[in-house]
Backbone:
C-alpha cells in the first residue's frame, strides 16, 4: 500500500471505503444494524445510526441492499445464522440418541451463547416487525421450521409406535412454547432469570409425556 508523509513521519495510508471488499462492507452494515437494534430497538435504528456505527456512507446501504427494509431482512437472516451456529455447537456429537439431542437443544437454546441480552432484544424486536416485513418474518417465526423439525424428529423416535398419534407433535409444540416463554421471561426479568430452573421446568414437562426418558 502506498505511504504518505505526516509531519515528516512516513505512515501507511488507510484503505479507503471503496477499496474494502464488498462482502466486508455488507457485513459491517449488518452487524451495525444488529448492534443498533440491540441498543435502541428497530424504531430508533435509523439509516444515519447504522452508517455511523458501520463507518460507511448512506449510499452503501442502497448499493448493497437497495433499501433499509432489505437491510433489516438481511440482518434477521444473519441473526438466525448466529443462533443456529450456536445451536449446532451445542448439539455436536449428540445426534445418535434422541434424548441426548433434545436435551442438548434445550440447554443450547437457554444457554448464555444463545440467550443473552443482545440476542433476546434483537429477537423480540424482529418479532414486532415480522407482520409488516415478510423478509424478517422468514427468520423470526415462533415455529421456526428447522428447530421444529429437529425436535419433532427426535420426539417421533421416542414415541415410536405409541398409541397416541399426537404425542410427538404435542411434545414439539409444547417445548417450543416453553422455550419462547423462557426467552420472554429473560427479556422482562433478566436479573432474576435462572437458566437451571428454566431447563428443569422444560424437562419436567417432558417427563410427563416421556417418563421413561426425562424422569
Residues:
Amino acid at each position: 500500500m502506498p505511504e504518505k508523509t505526516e509531519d515528516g513521519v512516513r505512515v501507511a495510508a488507510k484503505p479507503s471505503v471503496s477499496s474494502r471488499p464488498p462482502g466486508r462492507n455488507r457485513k459491517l452494515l449488518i452487524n451495525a444494524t444488529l448492534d443498533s437494534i440491540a441498543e435502541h430497538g428497530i424504531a430508533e435504528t435509523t439509516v444515519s445510526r447504522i452508517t455511523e456505527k458501520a463507518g460507511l456512507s448512506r449510499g452503501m446501504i442502497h448499493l448493497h441492499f437497495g433499501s433499509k427494509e432489505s437491510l433489516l431482512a438481511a440482518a434477521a437472516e444473519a441473526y438466525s445464522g448466529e443462533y443456529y451456529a450456536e445451536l449446532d455447537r451445542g448439539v455436536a456429537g449428540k445426534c445418535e440418541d434422541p434424548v441426548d439431542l433434545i436435551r442438548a437443544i434445550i440447554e443450547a437454546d437457554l444457554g448464555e451463547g444463545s440467550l443473552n441480552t443482545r440476542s433476546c432484544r434483537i429477537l423480540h424486536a424482529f418479532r414486532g416487525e415480522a407482520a409488516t416485513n415478510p423478509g424478517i418474518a422468514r427468520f423470526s417465526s415462533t415455529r421456526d421450521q428447522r428447530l421444529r423439525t429437529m425436535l419433532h424428529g427426535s420426539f417421533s423416535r421416542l414415541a415410536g409406535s405409541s398409541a397416541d398419534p399426537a404425542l410427538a407433535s404435542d411434545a414439539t409444540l409444547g417445548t417450543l412454547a416453553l422455550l419462547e416463554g423462557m426467552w420472554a421471561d429473560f427479556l422482562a426479568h433478566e436479573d432474576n432469570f435462572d437458566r437451571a430452573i428454566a431447563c428443569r421446568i422444560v424437562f419436567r414437562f417432558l417427563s410427563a409425556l416421556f417418563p421413561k426418558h426425562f424422569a
